[in-house]
Amino acid sequence: xxxxxxxxxxxxxxxxxxxxxxxxxxxxxxxxxxxxxxxxxxxxxxxxxxxxxxxxxxxxxxxxxxxxxxxxxxxxxxxxxxxxxxxxxxxxxxxxxxxxxxxxxxxxxxxxxxxxxxxxxxxxxxxxxxxxxxxxxxxxxxxxxxxxxxxxxxxxxxxxxxxxxxxxxxxxxxxxxxxxxxxxxxxxxxxxxxxxxxxxxxxxxxxxxxxxxxxxxxxxxxxxxxx
Length: 227
Ligand code: DC
What we know:
about 230 residues, 3-stranded antiparallel β-sheet, about 50% helix, globular, binds 2'-deoxycytidine-5'-monophosphate
């Protein structure tokens, strides 16, 4: 298929390497990278700061419509998140925010509220979008769908290293336990649970390094889109 505009959906569990790979592929192909987890993290961060319960849908929905959540692509080429005018790109990566993001993302009304914002981005330009339900719900007609995964232990090891590089020394066992809990949460929720779309290609990166993973995903893309 030769297309002027196309969309690539990358779904998978946390720590599978979706964002690092998607970011690199976006740069190589000259298309927009959209990290949808950052939107849920921004909401999670607000709930965390205001001591609101992310498990209560009514509590989340009572504040969500009033929040100003913006995604801005700045000269560094990265997606920055703004909450009520404040740049929260760094804060949303705090480990404490991850479970808040996962818990608030389980609510159907929260997901519906964010759907249009994500779809609009893909209507306006070629995108590579990563998340949990991009191929199944957000962009069911995406030209390419990849389900990126790796064993829990490998993903936890990568996350442990990432935290260490950022100066957070957390025990590997704790990182693994949290990852398994979040996987459970994301795959067992009733609305838009994490699962591979029927027409997705599963790429397991357990035994692959970054460059090999990138080439594996690029070859899936090349099979579907003539670049
Ligand atoms: O990709 P991430 O780890 O930054 O995402 C944080 C949480 O947001 C994740 O645990 C589940 C939720 N999420 C989602 O439900 N749907 C998406 N498309 C992206 C993320």
